[in-house]
Every structure is written in structure tokens, then in C-alpha cells.
Input
Amino acid sequence: MPTIRGGARSAGAAGLKTELFKRPDWSPLPFEGCVGVDGKVLVDEPDFFLALLRFRPDGTIHEHPGPNDTIVMCIDGDGWTSVAGERVQLHAGELVRWPRDTPHRLWTEGTEMTTLMYERKLEPV
Output
């Protein structure tokens, strides 16, 4: 069995290999209007983006439109989301879809929440 020691490893003639990836620390979201939210960007490729978001009680990401279709999965805890002015509670085990160019928001009200956010990066229409 191949082992990994600080780099990529390869196994067999098929060319199957693993690669190391950056394992970032939690850091506050650097956007104006984001309060009490830490994030970890796991993947930032030309065609998709994947990040963990951790909300403290009363944490918020301000309302804004996004350039990409986005799926947000609540992994732990619960909070709230709004899309185009419609508001709904989001619980662990649930997901919400945000269409591109549509105002959306994510926040907690006295609770904590951890989410996984996936964006499909699309070419502008």
C-alpha cells in the first residue's frame, strides 16, 4: 500500500493518485456586513467553490446578490436564510438553494450554526 509523506502519492498502473490540499484555519469573513461568522475555504477552483461557515449566536452575512448558483447545507445547529425577501428557518440536515443574481442572506438568532457552502461558478450570461 502506498504511503503519503508530504506530497502526492500514486497507486497502480491506472494512475490513481491523491494530492495534498491546504487545510485552512477558521478566520472571520472579511466582508463588510458580516458579523460573528468564521469561514474555511476548502476548494476554490475555476468552476466551483466550497467553504465551511461557522456562525456564532446572532452572527450574520448581510443580504447581497451572488454571481453564482449556490447550495448551502446546514451541517450543525440552526439559523435563518432569506432569498429575494422570503425568509425560512434552516436546521441541521437541510439545504437551501440560492439562484445567481438574487439577493440572499444567512444568519442566526441566538443560536449557533455550521454550514457547507457550494458555489458553481458560471460564465456571465
About this structure: The chain has no helices and ten strands. Residues 1-5 have pLDDT under 50 and may be disordered.
